[in-house]
Amino acid sequence: MTRPVPSERSAYRTFRTLTTRWMDNDIYGHMNNVVHYSLFDAAVNGWLIENKVLDIHGGDQIGLVVETGCRYFGELAFPDVVTAGIRVAQIGSSSVRYEVGLFRNEEDVAAAEGFFVHVYVDRQTRRPKPLNSPLRAALDTISVA
Fold first, then answer.
1. Of 14, 20, 21, 33, whose CA–CA distance to 100 is shortest?
2. In angstroms, rounded to a whole number, what is the distance separating the alpha carbons of residues 137 and 141?
3. Number of other residues whose CB lies within 10 A of the CB of residue 62
4. Strand partners, 19
5. Contact call for residues 22 and 35 (beta carbons, < 8 A)
6. pLDDT for 97-127, tens place per residue?
7. DSSP string, 19-63
8. φ, ψ dihedrals at 75, nearest 5°
């Protein structure tokens, strides 16, 4: 089995800067694994909110995570500044696969790369709902599919 190679920044379509916190470090002095998933979530949802395609308080459509994964290539720790690269790898009728690379400080190679799949649902019924036009158009701008 061949070990995966981390991506460079150029493999991503948009970026968000995130800061680590003192409490993110574990007893071994690096960022706890669960924090990586929190950064993925914050990066993607922050991008969706900034692009006005996610209204977390009143929108009729929300994304629920149905699958996640992460590969670790290097350490992150407080007080690192993390740049999250975001791209969309697949767009379905009601689902999206986001891929996120976490880059330590000014490094060009990802310290970690992960993905998660959102299924977009009606806020009230929690049943899958086709992606609305503004969301699909925004996703197209960062799609690599």
1. 14
2. 7
3. 16
4. 81
5. no
6. 999 999 999 999 999 999 999 999 999 999 9
7. E--GGGB-TTSSB-HHHHHHHHHHHHHHHHHHTT---TTT-SEEE
8. -90, 145
Tokens encoding 145: 């599919």
DSSP assignment letter at 94: S
Backbone CA torsion sign across 135, 62, 58, 50 = negative
pLDDT at residue 2 above 90?
Answer: no
Looking at residue 41, its pLDDT comes to: 96
Contacts of 28 (CB under 8 A, 6+ apart): none
pLDDT exceeds 90 at position 1 = no
Which residue type sits at 124?
Answer: Q
Task: Kindly indicate the confidence band of residue 95, based on its pLDDT and cuts at 50, 70 and 90.
Answer: very high
In angstroms, the CA 84 to CA 9 distance is 9
Cα 145-64-30 angle, rounded to 5 deg: 80
Q: What are the C-alpha distances in Å from 77 to residues 21, 23, 25, 89?
A: 8, 10, 6, 28
Is 0.90 surpassed by the pTM of this model? yes
